[in-house]
Amino acid sequence: MRFSESLREATKQSWELSLNHPFVQGIVSGDLPLETFKNYILQDIYYLKHYGKVHAFAAAHSDDFHVAANLAEKAKKTAEAELTVHKEHAETLKITNEEIENFKPAPTAYAYTSHLYRASLSGSLAQIVAAMLPCYWLYADIGLTYKDAKPKEEIYQNWLNTYGSEWFQESTQEMIDLLDGLAEKASETEKEKIKDQFILAKEYELAFWEMSYTFETWLSEKAMNSTSV
Question: For residues 47 and 100, is the Cβ–Cβ distance under 8 A?
Answer without folding.
Answer: no
